[in-house]
Amino acid sequence: MVLCVNLRPAVAGLPPIFTQLQDRLALSSVDVTLLATIPVLCFGLFSPVAALTARRFGEERALGGALVAGAAGLLMRALLPGALLLAGTVVVSGAIAFMNVSLPSLIKRREPRRAGRLLSLYMVMLYTGAITSSAIVVPVYRSTHGSLAVTLGMSAVPMVVALLAWLPQLRYGTARRAASLPPGASQRLPRGHVRRHRLAWQVTAFMGLQSMTYYATLSFLPDLFLSRGLAPSQSGLVGSLLSVGGLVSAFGTPMIAHRSARAARLLMIATVVLCAAGISAALLAPVNAGLALMPLLGLGQGAGLALALYFVMARAATPAVAASLSALAQGVGYVVAALGPLAVGSLHALTGGWRAPVLVLLLATAAELVVGLLAARPHQVPAPGPAARYVPGEDGGRPTP
Questions:
Q1: CB neighbours (10 Å) of residue 136?
Q2: N or C end of the chain: which has fewer CB within 10 A?
Q3: How crowded is the C-beta side of 199, counted as CA atoms within 13 Å?
Q4: Would you state the pLDDT for residue 138?
Q5: pLDDT of residue 394
Q6: If residue 300 lies in a helix (H) or strand (E), which one and from where to where?
Q7: Residue 188 in contact with residue 72, Cβ under 8 Å?
């Protein structure tokens, strides 16, 4: 849980001080765009490397290395922001990608019967870190008289705390990892094994679409509300309301989905309905009413991310398959997610309005429902050979033929 707190502060803590960074470091608009895009791209690009590393050294050691790299990246951009802000962001974002990929397979391997409960706590800590960092970064900047070293470096503190808490896990060696697997469940899979199964691509498509709509709405909603007459001083409320809603739904969603496939399907429908209603309200409802409805959109988005991570675990027959499925879903998914803000911005620039971007996002939400219902079926991506019979935990699921 201490490790999970670190999954978003390095990313969520930058946007509130983009203006200050531009003024202090003479950043161009291109630099700011890169700062906003680099984390999502790194989540996608580093995911396959993370899976290979975890398979070679084990999730415990891969996560320990990621915590070291994450702390180093945060200190790089704190001590030399003028020279290493972008490079430090790449390093810490790559480290978070390792955590994103390795944590679900770690839970699958070591606590499969409690996967729903642990993933719920995972999501709560993720949102807690995101909300806290975005809320305190501006007050810290002002109270330290504009100290970038303190403001950018404070995220390294929970990263170092997590590393110290994780040190005992580094002793969890290969022999104990192998002993935790059922007979025949190898850590190694044939090349491309997971990619040959339709279910893996359905999980990947759901991860990509829900991430794309999340990052797109996060980037355009403040501007949309401002164009409709919202006071500039209130624009920061949009992201906060989304995060609060996401925190509420993220807690219970994995535990409910873990009960049965029917529960997962009903959650999927509710998730998409909430997202579609929230996106529509931002454009069509009166401004104050639309702002008040943003927690509903946050509820849908939080549930969507929780379901995507849950499917990575529940639709994999073994921990090794879960690691490969996590790398595929997050590698492709976050690259797709990076296209969301770009597509919305381009459509807004071309049309001069918000109807076309909102329509595209509603179509993406409809597609999210289709692939999500397919991913919610109680099947699993099997491991080759006898390991395909290993199905811990989830509602009597069975390997996909």
A1: 16
A2: C
A3: 25
A4: 83
A5: 42
A6: helix 294-314
A7: no
Q: Which of 210, 193, 250, 221 is nearest to 367 (CA)?
A: 210
Residue 187 has pLDDT above 90, yes or no: no
Instruction: Determine the Cα–Cα distance for residues 87 and 67; give it in Å rounded to an integer.
Output: 17
The CA radius of gyration of the chain, in Å to the nearest whole number, is: 21
DSSP code string of 167-193: GGGGG--HHHHHHTSPTT--S---TTT
Q: Which residues 6+ apart lie within 8 Å of 57 measured at CB?
A: 65
Instruction: Give the relative orientation of helices 59-79 and 47-57 as an angle to the nearest 10 degrees.
Output: 130
φ, ψ for residue 379 (rounded to 5)?
-115, 170
H/E segment holding residue 380: strand 379-380
Per the CB < 8 A criterion, the answer to whether 296 and 274 are in contact is yes
CA distance readout (Å), 330 to 310, 314, 352? 13, 15, 33
pLDDT grade for 393, boundaries at 50, 70 and 90: very low
The string of pLDDT tens digits covering residues 249-292 is 887 888 888 777 788 899 999 999 999 999 999 889 888 888 88
| Distance, CA of 269 to CA of 247 (rounded, Å) | 19
Distance from the first to the final alpha carbon of the chain: 36
pTM comes to 0.79
C-alpha 240/C-alpha 4 separation (Å) is: 19
DSSP designation for 316: B
Residues 117 and 101: their CA atoms lie apart, in Å, by: 18
Distance in angstroms (rounded) separating the CA atoms of residues 233 and 218: 17
Residues 45/93, Cβ–Cβ less than 8 Å: no
Hunting for tokens 């409690």 — which residue is that? 114
- Locate 232 and state its tokens: 């500039």
Alpha-carbon distances of 306 from 47, 264, 271, 369, 381, rounded to whole Å = 18, 11, 10, 15, 19
Question: Between the CA of residue 397 and those of 83, 261, 329, 388, 390, what are the distances in Å?
Answer: 51, 8, 20, 11, 10
